[in-house]
Amino acid sequence: MENGQSQAPPAPSSPVKASILTPGPFRSPKSRVVYSDRLIPSRAATSRLDYSLLEREAAAEAGRPRQSLDPGADPGADPGSSAGAYAQLLRSQLLGCPPPSPDRASGGGAAGAGAGLAPRSPTRSPARKLFRYMAGDAETPLSGVPPASPYARGTLGGEDLAAATPGLASPARPLRRIPRAPFKVLDAPGLSDDFYLNLVDWSSANTLAVGLASAVYLWSALTSKVTLLVDLGPDRMVTSVGWSGRGSYLAVGVDDGQVQIWDVAKATNGSRDAGILLRDPRAPPPFSVRLSAHRSEVCGLRWAHDGRSLASGGNDNLLCVWDARWSGSGGGGSPTPPAGATAPASNPSRPLRRWTDHSAAVKALAWSPHAHGVLASGGGSADRTIRLWNAGTGSCLQTVDTGSQVCCLAWAKNANELVSTHGYSQNQVVVWRYPAMTKLATLTGHTLRVLYLALSPDGQTVVTGAGDETLRFWNVFPEARGKGAAGPAGGVGAHLHASIR
């Protein structure tokens, strides 16, 4: 009490002031976001935590140009590189933040680069608290990313991530580019336009043998040197040539039924008399075993890579597989049937498999080097199909209608791919991917049927021959893994256009 006056008791607080002093969060009528002074964890999978440190880094990044992590990269290069994609991936997987839309992610300048890293919420002052809890309003009580199960598996590297974040998905493997033009052309005057002949073969020693009319020429792929091996004279014609496995010996077939073996160790030939002769020069003449199953001329023969099976195709539309272990040894030995064979031991000339599915002559034959017992066959102009067979079970694996006569087939050595040459009416060369049998490339250039095909020793180059009297070299297959490239020609001579004679 002072100056004789008593002090009146304080008036009770008004209800408004009492409500202000009551503990609780402050709610602004102009804001829908409620802030608290401490972190309140939420078990809801749709709630979100925003970190102001990320906002500071995003604001700082938006104000200066981005630099590549690669020391040799261009400083002015596009900032939307692997570092930005990695940051987006981390935010998507760890914080549950959806990635920016393609329009925002592809924005130009520093703003576009900052948009890829900026949080979804607006950038705030760095002076605010480190952690901030954000809650929704009455209409949207939960904020953040769309509802998701807290036990859901992450989409790191999955298909969902690739669909939702195109910029973060792994880049598709680029398709191998196959040149559409030959890198070398050889003139081959006298190369016959006859579907039933086999006049081109490439040895493992990188020498190409070509039958031209009555002569056989050897062309070295390393030196481009041409050598005349034999000239049979004007009254005889070469019908087939074939190298031995090591490339040291060559067998030459003649139109009168004669087979000339030039330092060969073993040879097989078929003829117009519908017979197949297995010849072994080490055995007493005239031959080891005669195989008879075709009713018309034999136009296709191919040994399997293990040397145990022989495939034959004929003009009677018949395809056969023979077991070489039935042929006996030494000319007079008794044939021993292989385990599991169904043919009686008294009839060694009976084929192991016999298929009549083709509706035209079967000349094109090729054994797969990647799958044991897989055989590819092609039919003539009335059939136009490529058929894949399992010689072990006898089943047809696949049939592909090519739309034109199938003349030759060959498997790639370094990839599970197949090349085919065709005649009427497109005269094309087609590269296929097995087992889907999808076309990888269609090569054109020959003006007549592509009747001859051979594969280089390195497995990268194929040579095709046609009745237009040209040999064309194509670089179609990949190189072997772990080996350096031998140049675009794969070891073939560098002259683009030359003559085989």
UniProtKB/TrEMBL annotation:
Q: Name one GO cellular component term.
A: anaphase-promoting complex
- Annotated Gene Ontology MF terms? anaphase-promoting complex binding; ubiquitin ligase activator activity
Q: Which InterPro entries match?
A: Cdc20/Fizzy, WD40/YVTN_repeat-like_dom_sf, WD40_CDC20-Fz, WD40_repeat_CS, WD40_repeat_dom_sf, WD40_rpt
| Keywords associated with the record | Cell cycle, Cell division, Mitosis, Repeat, WD repeat
A Gene Ontology biological process in which this protein takes part is: anaphase-promoting complex-dependent catabolic process
Q: What PROSITE patterns does the annotation carry? A: WD_REPEATS_1, WD_REPEATS_2, WD_REPEATS_REGION
Question: Coiled-coil segments, which residues?
Answer: none
The WD repeats are at: 238-264, 291-323, 355-399, 443-476
Domain of life per record: Eukaryota
The CDC20/Fizzy WD40 domain covers: 268-474
Gene3D superfamilies found in the cross-reference section: YVTN repeat-like/Quinoprotein amine dehydrogenase
Which residues does the annotated region (Disordered) include? 1-39, 58-124, 330-353
SMART domains reported in the protein's UniProt record: WD40
What are the Gly residues biased-composition ranges? 106-115
In which family does this protein belong, per the annotation? Belongs to the WD repeat CDC20/Fizzy family.
Protein's UniProt name: Protein FIZZY-RELATED 2
Species whose genome carries this gene: Auxenochlorella protothecoides (Green microalga)
